[in-house]
Amino acid sequence: MKKQIVLDLETTGINLIDKHYIGHKIIEIGAVEIKNRKITKNIFHYYLNPKREIDIKAYKIHGIKNYFLTNKPTFKKISNKFIKFIKNSELIIHNSAFDIGFIENELKLIQNNTLKIKNICKVIDTLTIARKIFPGKKNDLNSLKERYKINYLKRKKHGALIDAKLLALIFLNMTKKQMKINFHTKKNQFKNPFKQNKKTIIIFANNKEIKKHNKYLNFIKKQTTYK
């Protein structure tokens, strides 16, 4: 089975103009591995120094303070490790356009050529899946957590690693009914729902019912006989 990596980010802000990020940076990356439909201990987690201030609106979401990040590495220092971790995987993200936009912007700032994530990973967007399963409903992580009755950590604040682990559980719940069907084996052939396992019970008419039936047939015969 292909390697599956569940990813989440926290950033300095989310202001966008024409889909371009106004100088905002990644401050936390959290990623966990799923192997054979089990969450492994193989994780990727870093807090990053963005070299800029965090917007107050973003701070209220994740609670990460500027001074906490002063001694953390920059994205450039961990970029090679990050690419190695996600390369050739199925990259599972909730609202993938947002996260991938940030990642590709960071990569663009540290190298001449622009690396496209879709060229090194297959991206799976769980928000798209959720909207198909639950059309017209709220499909943020908290709503999906409640809907799937996942008793995971109470999230007072967002956090990349916490949210990646939560998303992994949500993804496994979303896809647990999917199965491959091998049409070449008898085990996977569809059963006829009308097939009766039990023997059919035949009830015969008694003598009294037979006499009544014959009497009715004679009556019908007289009614249809022309003189």
Outline the structure in words.
By secondary structure, this protein is α/β, with parallel strands linked by helices. The chain has 7 helices and 7 strands; from the N terminus they run E-E-E-E-E-H-H-E-H-E-H-H-H-H. A 5-stranded mixed sheet has the order 5-4-1-6-7, sandwiched between helices. Strands 2-3 form a two-stranded antiparallel sheet. A hairpin with a 2-residue loop joins strand 4 and strand 5 (38-47). The longest helix has 17 residues, at 207-223. It is elongated. Mean pLDDT is 82; it is low at 179-198 and 223-227.
What's this, in brief?
The chain has helices spanning 56-62, 75-86, 96-110, 126-133, 141-147, 160-174, 207-223; strands spanning 4-11, 16-17, 20-21, 26-35, 38-47, 90-93, 122-125. It is an alpha/beta fold.
